[in-house]
Amino acid sequence: MAKSSFNSNGNIKLESEKAKINKENLKEAFALFAYLKPFRAKFILSLVFIALSALSTMIFPFLLGKMIDAAAPGAAASVPQAPINPSAMLGLNLNTLNWSLNTILILIFLQLSVQTVFSFMRIYLLTEVGEKSLANIRTDLYGKLLSMPMSFYSEQRVGELSNRLSADLSQIQDAISFTLAEFLRGIFTLIIGLSFIFWINTKLAFVMLAVVPLIAVVAVVFGMRIRKMSRKAQDQLAESGTIVQETFQGISIVKAFTSEAYEMSRYRKSIFGVVETAITNARYRGAFVSFMIFSVFGSIAFVMWYGAGLIKSGEMSAGDLTMFVIFSAFVGGTFAGFADMFSQLQKTLGATQRVRELLRNEGEAVELTFNDKAFQRPIKGSVRFENVAFAYPGRPDVEVLRNINLNANIGEQIALVGPSGAGKSTIASLLLNFYQPLSGNIYYDEMNSKEFELSELRKQIAFVPQDVILFGGSIKENIAYGKPNASEQEIIKAAEQANAAGFIENFPEGYETIVGERGIKLSGGQRQRIAIARAILKDPAILILDEATSSLDSESEQLVQEALENLMKGRTSFVIAHRLSTVRNANKIVVIDKGTVQEQGTHEQLMQMEKGLYKKLVDMQLEWSTLQV
Known about the structure:
Strand content: 5-15%
Helix content: 55-70%
CATH superfamily of the largest domain: ABC transporter type 1, transmembrane domain
Structural class: alpha/beta
CATH class of the largest domain: Mainly Alpha
Largest sheet: 6 strands, mixed
Number of helices: 19
Number of strands: 12
Radius of gyration: 36 Å
Mean pLDDT: 79
Number of domains: 4
CATH topology of the largest domain: ABC transporter transmembrane region fold
Distance between the termini: 54 Å
């Protein structure tokens, strides 16, 4: 799980947790490399360019050294050949190469030109491979999340899932496009640089290698401590941000209880905790910077002093010493860079673990591509629950429904009523096949729900919830959500039947009006009528209405109720209602309490039961209405 904290601007930021580098985690990471297979030719070519780029970079110090030697004719010729000389073994003695200053300058610009091409190609190819492979991973992960059952979302936080698609995959993308390239380039640079260093002068090479690893180890230790202190400061800052958020969200309570002084004390304590940690961190950073300045420049001075002695004794030329110092800087920089690469690799392994965990989950067999084929099992509209029992996966010991038996004929309106928490919305979820019953069966036209393809079944059912969810596009797109290929005439007709055409056409942009996030730019009644138009356009065989008018004013309720009547015509409808006056005309009223069916019948039949639950609920609502008046 990624850590969340607040940055200096008060915005939430996410920090990927690190994973240990071991065989199992590396295996998880390499599993994602399967996404590179379609682009393996370009990936391999990019690796070649990485090697060539490192090689061409390391030629630059060699040419600079030769340029210095060319400025002092005869200096290089007097230097004896190094004991270890790989170039001589290959039939090429680099010590004997003597060029003029002009020739060396031309060679340097030629080397820079070639290196420019190599660098461009490695960055371009790795970025292309990384972007395309990550796009495929993102698509697969998003599809996997879309196919996950409702039980999965009841146990997950939406913010964390969004983070998987953004931060975690971005971390993997950086690893493929940047970290991997830098790591391989560092390996090549290290090998080539050390080879050149030993070629130039073996004695000086051992002196340098006695110092550089020590500096690198100290740098890693300091770096780990500094990062640890930085994370502590971030956590403390996040705590102070939480205090601010809680205080302002509950400002009325703070003022009512005169707790301003308490909140001020709490915030001051948190802030000064951040200050103390930051000052401690500054001590470490100051010590680290001071140590690095002293060590690096001291090492350079020592190597130069030792090299100057070798020049004086005739064992080395000034050009060779220049080469050696520059190559040493490359090697030292590469050593220092590996520490950060190691940290990035740990973060990447952590991100890979979380992504792979999601990809391995078993999703529902839903369609993830558009399909306009005719239904293999078209539903006419009859529904039957047979001894259905159910408990939510997160609470398996709490049985929400027990021995539910109910029947709906084609075109009937079935009202589901009862106290809050009785199980009415759970029945709606089972109708949509969001969950499977623990026992018993649900039949559509006397066919078991398990015999239907999931997408095909849900395409023939429409759902209008109490809290309407609209998406951030246009009104037209929201109405056509259940039928994306609908014509403009079909959309307008659905809006007219839902009593929505009037207010839509009054907008300057009409059906192209942007509704805003979750439909925030529309009133509750307008959102409800768009949701009804969406259901009408879908033309379902079965309709589920969950408190569709409970939160509306009288005028909006009348318009919505008329739209609902148009929607329910000729369709089997399940209406969940707390306001019992809206279901008097239902063909059957099913009274549910404590997860069981207590009563069934028409309004008149149930009102004749003197001690019935339905009559009690009606009398209570009538009494409440009288008191309100």
